[in-house]
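Worked Example 4.2. Consider the chain below.
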Amino acid sequence: MSVVEQYARAHIVSDAALPLVDELEAVPVTLRYDPDHDPGSVRMTLPGSGGHEWIFSRDLLEEGLRAPTGSGEVRVWPCGRVQAVVEFHSPQGVSVVQFERQALLRFLRRTYMAAAEPVTH
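Applying the procedure from the previous section yields the following structure tokens:
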């Protein structure tokens, strides 16, 4: 099965120290899915975060596009008809990342296609 990696433009508002992030500019956020390593999870890397990856349930991301969900470190909710928000909590602070909903749906669709690929040897 193949790894899915996609960049999605997002707006980040944070009280955490993200040195290369301008809250007014859309920045590329890396979305990653590796069905061989962890088929139930997705990974997000925010720019300027020192390469810190947030790992959370693919189901959480999918459910959060329809209704607010999550607790603890990661929360996801729809924001109007075309936006979605992913909120990350850490000891360094809170980061709120706003995406176009379509970008996240496209990523999720690609993850399901990758997970359905037949294994070849």
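The chain has one domain: 4-116. The mean pLDDT is 86. Compare this with Example 4.1 before moving on.
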